[in-house]
Amino acid sequence: RLHLVTWNVGTASPPPDVTSLLQLDSDSPTVDMYVIGLQEVNSRITNFLSDLAFDDPWSIFFMSVLSPLGFMKLSSVRMQGLLLLVFVRHVHLPFLRDVHTHYTRTGLYGYWGNKGGVTVRMSLYGHTVCFMNCHLPAHIENTEQRLDDFEKILEMQFEGENIPSTLDHDVLFWFGDLNFRIADYGIHFVRESINNKRYSLLWDKDQLNMAKKKEPFLQDFIEGPLQFKPTYKFDRHSEVYDTSEKKRKPAWTDRILWRLKHLSRRAPKEGEITDEQTISVTLNNYISHMSYGISDHKPVTGTFMLEMKPLVSEPLVTLNPEGVWSAERDVLINYSAVPDFPSSAWDWIGLFKVTFRHVNDYVTYAWVEDDEISSNENSKQVYMSAAEIPDNGGEFLLCYYSNNLQSVVGVSQPFQIQPNRTLIGKDLTQEESSGGRNLTIEPRNEF
Questions:
Q1: Which residue intervals define the domain Inositol polyphosphate-related phosphatase in the entry (predicted)?
Q2: Among the four residues 7, 88, 320, 342, which has the most C-beta atoms within 10 Å?
């Protein structure tokens, strides 16, 4: 189950709450993956440089919301105002491989990144999936420029790399502020149609719908029905369309489309599995969210069900903690890898809190070769020093990171680490000897 968000945030800071945007209050089945595409993230040069050195405020915000719910930031890519984030549940991590990112500038003849596309692609249970967040040129008269830029983005993503082209992926999701407008009709007719919820009167003059009928490279892209109000342009912090002097005509600028690659148009031979049978995409809902007013665009979400025949069903590495773990003694990790696993001296096993935010958010780690203490045909053992184990204990899990594959290829079940009783006893003694005064105990560096 995939929940995809596109939102032109108009350089604003994150809102106080995104519960409805992420459907966190929904009775629907649990989401497995969030893909969040933002446009016009604050890209002033000072902000952009600091965001390159550290996570930007929007990434930090979404990590703070989703990591307590069991999601890790799998990947992200930033190009000036464009940001794409992918979050997944821990259980899927060993089956998400070959993760790569790319970006293509189209602003100022390809020299400026205020317009263009950012992409994350991966192998998902053996199927190739690609997510492309675009911000295309504005204004009603620039339809051809939008189409040219999108075609250029399609051609340039991963060009020259040993990666399938975007259109060669089994599934391609295309979304963003695509900036297509409603042609021909005047502003009064458009607004009247919206007020009466007669959106279908406007569909035939939507520039993207019109382009899909005549442009071959668009004809395989699918979109759900536009049964929500156009999401541009609003007065900020309101549900009122543009009241400025320009009085922009409302438009469905913010869109989500997808494309399934059909590997063969011929009839399958007897017993042969076709692409249609191994992977399918179903749109469960396609809606806008009018309550968010930080920018002149409203966010749009699409919730999808991806059904697939797993081409990869076993993790490359299986690992688990040996015995009961506590901070009072060195601990052991057992792991085993599939035959022909491309291990490296730079592979490591990290200890993570169950609410970890991304792969570098480990508490401590062990090198699989340097810290190995035993090995046989079936399994290996690695140790972690007691000095590295958190004294307060809690719920943790282990992840095996492959340097060659640049991804997590094994995840343990969550387990408990027992707190250090010696330290706890010492703290209680200090508190008693202080005569009841409040003492501040500084946390160890691990925290």
A1: 1-312
A2: 7
d(CA 21, CA 12): 16
Neighbours of 212 (CB within 10 A): 18
Distance CA 212, CA 230 (A): 19
User: Amino acid identity, residue 368?
Assistant: V
Instruction: Tell which residue, 252, 135, 126, has the closest CA to residue 182.
Output: 252
CA distance 297 to 251: 10
**CA gap 252, 224 in Å, rounded:** 13
> Which residue in this structure is represented by tokens 């966010």?
299
* 317-431 is classed CATH 2.60.40.2840: yes
Return the CATH number of the domain spanning residue range 2-308: 3.60.10.10
> pLDDT, tens digit, for every residue of 234-274?
999 999 999 999 899 999 999 999 999 964 343 444 444 44
Report CA-CA distances (Å) from 413 to 91, 351, 410: 9, 12, 10
Write the CB contacts of 49 (distance below 8 Å, at least 6 apart in sequence).
none
